[in-house]
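Colleagues,

Please find the record for the two-part complex below.
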Amino acid sequence: MSGRRTAFEIYWEILVFCRTPQSFTGIINRCDLNSKTGQEYLRFLVEKEYLVEVAEGDKTRYLSTERAGEYTALFGSLYRKLFDAPPRFKL
Amino acid sequence: MHESALVRFKSEIRHFYVITIANIVFAALVMAFGISVLVGEAVSMYETFSTALYVLYSPVVLFVALVAALTGFSWLLTSIRVFEGIETIKDDLDGMGSEVPDEDLTRLIVSMLSHYRDNRATIRTMILVCTLGGVCSFLLGVAGSLEHLSVSADGVVFTLNNYLVIPFMLLTLGIALVSLTSSSYFSRFARVWDGRLDEIEESEALLKETLEMDRR
């Protein structure tokens, strides 16, 4: 996904993608981030224990924790709620 | 909740897609009509100045045709830019069939919001360009077909060049009507999506709290 997104949208994307262990490169490719911003987002999520680093051989992979579920559920419900009401004009 | 959100999202995306396609078609038509009238006027200009024939060109029609051709061109470019994003979202949505998991729906909503954020300024320009294109087409249709027009206290009297011009006039008036209608729909969509962006901004406080982002 690309385009102008908020930090919260990017966090959600990373957390959903990392439900299965993902490499740093995989995450930045999937979420269309450059490595610098990608590192910042991942560092934040690891600090807050929404992501854990898992060592697989000599590679590090990122995996969403149970705590991430609370955030992704809230995010999803808030965004889907936008379409609870029909637009105020006839389509 | 999910079913209705999905149905509404699908319906909005489809309508937006159709309006964008209509815009592309009519932008191309406006540009083509503008160019064809420009060429006709250029021939009249050449004949007026280079031959003994008494052929008068109309600077008003020339100007309106020029504006229509340029407006059509810029309208076409902006419509294509908006169309590409909406087409991707619509294709993804269609590819998922009738059963769309919550998470995929959320992803598509995020895509649409980011596409709207990216093209917010373009869509605003498009609303103006559509209106201008509609007005130009209307003027072109009227100016190209009227032979005589007089407005007095008794009423409006006009004569048409000949009956052959009527289909051209109706076509340009049709373009005017469609572009003004799509401009109106674009502005309604823009209002709705602006409202959604505001709603999302308001709920960011809750997301921030959940993420414990006090330090940011």
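The radius of gyration of chain B is 24 Å.

Comments are welcome before we finalize the supplementary table.
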